[in-house]
Amino acid sequence: MKPLSLYIHLPFCSRKCLFCSFVIAVGQEHRREEYVRALEMEMEHHAASPAGGRAAQKLHTVYLGGGTPSLLDERHLDVLMNAVRKNFSLQENAEITIEANPESVDIAKAKFLKRQGFNRISLGVQSLNDRYLKFLGRGHDAPAAVRAYHCLREAAFDNINMDLMYAFPGQARDELQRDVRALAHLNSEHLSLYTLTIEPNSKFYASQMKLDDDEKLADHYLMIARILQEHGFAQYEISNFAKPGRESAHNRNYWTGAPYIGLGVGAHAFDGRRRAWNTPRLQDYLRRMSQGMSAVEGHEDLTDEQLVMEKVLFGLRMNEGIRWDMVPFHKRGRIEAWIRDGFLLREGERLQATERGRLVLDELSARLI
Ligand code: SF4
Q1: What are phi and psi of 367, to 5 degrees?
Q2: What is the distance in A from the centroid of ligand 1 to the CA of 67?
């Protein structure tokens, strides 16, 4: 049986970062209570469904993402986590992650999160260069990020991820090098790498900003990977690096096609065949929950071919790659050509992307579908 994950979306943010295109709610803090109640109802609804309930499969991972989940105060987080425990069974040693922004973490909050049973924190640092933090419209500066990190350590968190963003227009190589070294030096267990992209519903999109060329970004990507490796982080996915044994179990479940439950506004769920998504509008989500309706707005049933291709494409993003026999026969000719061109490597029964292949994997994936 494949591991089961639970994702809960908390959309509240105190401001909108200029690059952000996630489902968020700014200036809606007064709705937090109502939202947590709605999540409780959605959990109860799920528990009462044929697939749900405490008797059903135990959760391997729980992930509170957003938005800024750490903006919920202690009372709301308490209610939320009690509802999770009441409506689901958790495996022993389940990975329980909460995303946090540096400005919403102090020592009291860090200790509270620890007491609540979170055992992994994903800290939205993005950069330790104040110029770029300002450019991104973040609500913290570098000293605040470092302070938040140390508060988490003081509260005995031993599994911390930090997000690192790069590819800012005009970003110099040595500037990025300093940023990566400073972040790596903090010595977290995990680092997730994000390339700045200009998404249609972000504030950057309206400004028609131009990004730097692909060649420069490829050089910067390889430099980051090298620095992180020097600091003991092993790359295990195209954008993710971890100390030994600290890979994200939650993300791994996504990448290996395992099922997940998604709760909250805009959340997605997958049962191994059907992908479903909740309404992305907060008001609509709250209305549906208050009327005892489903939050699901749409779904798509994946064909056998789509399921196989998802496993192949996600699998190639991971360093461990995939088994050769997972590649459908009618795609093997193209894959063999990419092996000859040095983008992929076949060793025995394993197929992996090479360093060169990782730089163009999105393009290869698009051509393969
Ligand atoms: S904190 Fe995260 S979710 Fe909120 S606006 Fe910024 S990037 Fe978006």
Answers
A1: -75, -25
A2: 5
